[in-house]
Amino acid sequence: MNDPVRDARDLVLERFPDATWAMLTGSVVGPDRTAGSDLDIVVLRDEEPGFRESLRFRGWPVELFVHTPDRLATFLASERAKRKPSTHRMLARGVVLFGDPGDLVARCARVLADGPPPLTEAERERLRYGLTDLLDDHRHATDPGERTVLTATLWTEAARAELLFSGRWVSSGKWLLREQDPGFAERWLAARDDPAELAAEVLERGGGPLFDGYRI
Fold first, then answer.
1. Nearest to 36 by CA among 19, 9, 55, 60
2. d(C-alpha 155, C-alpha 73), whole Å
3. What are the residues facing 22 on neighbouring strands?
4. Do 47 and 18 form a contact (C-beta atoms < 8 A)?
5. What's the pTM value of the predicted model, to 2 decimals?
């Protein structure tokens, strides 16, 4: 099997010989590696523009995340505000290919450990209103197709709201499960086909249903 670190380093040196530093990250360097894991590579360089690119190299699917210092700082600040720390995770858990990212790895790890900023009252009300509305639509749905769509949406949004109400980082895809408290995660998976009761519990913990008087 190809060595992901060697191949990632060779790719970056070929494409970005002037890069300040580069890091290989994602499941390919962790315990969650699968046969389909790709090379997630973060590259810092001074030359504009920054960009994201997908390609194949030596049989690997590759995702390049190319940043300038200003672009990277903007991404990190935006992620904290959105409570969705994708780049922080990559930098905190990656393997340096070359160069020196300084204290950036430690800073990102500290952000992840500290958790997101608390919800504002307006953000909490928006979540409560949205989940209230979804539950109402799901409860009264009669068309089988619409009910299937609403069930899937309610199931996903209940998990997302649970993270936000609990002061955890919000996520999508596999991280929507990974970020959950283990006890909730087990119940959430079991409620996939009928999430209304669990969603109602999440809503109560977040402050309860909200409809009358909601104004934005």
1. 60
2. 34
3. 43, 98
4. yes
5. 0.87
d(CA 177, CA 168): 12
Strands (E), 89-142: 95-98
Through-space distance between the first and last CA atoms of the chain, rounded to whole angstroms: 55
Domain 4-114 fold: Beta Polymerase; domain 2 (3.30.460)
- HSE toward the beta carbon, residue 14, CA cutoff 13 A: 8
- Which residue type is seen at 138? H
Strands 21-25 and 39-44 come out as: antiparallel
Residue 169, token pair as written in the block = 């980082």
Listed in sequence order, the DSSP H helices in the chain are: 4-15, 69-82, 86-92, 104-114, 121-140, 144-165, 174-178, 182-190, 196-205
Q: What are the sequence ranges of the domains in the chain?
A: 4-114, 121-205
Q: What is the pLDDT along the chain (216 residues), one digit of tens a residue?
A: 589 999 999 999 999 999 999 999 988 887 778 777 899 999 999 999 899 999 999 999 999 999 999 999 999 999 999 999 999 999 999 999 999 999 999 999 999 999 999 999 999 999 999 999 999 999 999 999 999 999 999 999 999 999 999 999 998 899 999 999 999 999 999 999 999 999 999 999 999 999 999 999
Instruction: State how far the Cα of 135 lies from the Cα of 44, in Å rounded to an integer.
Output: 45
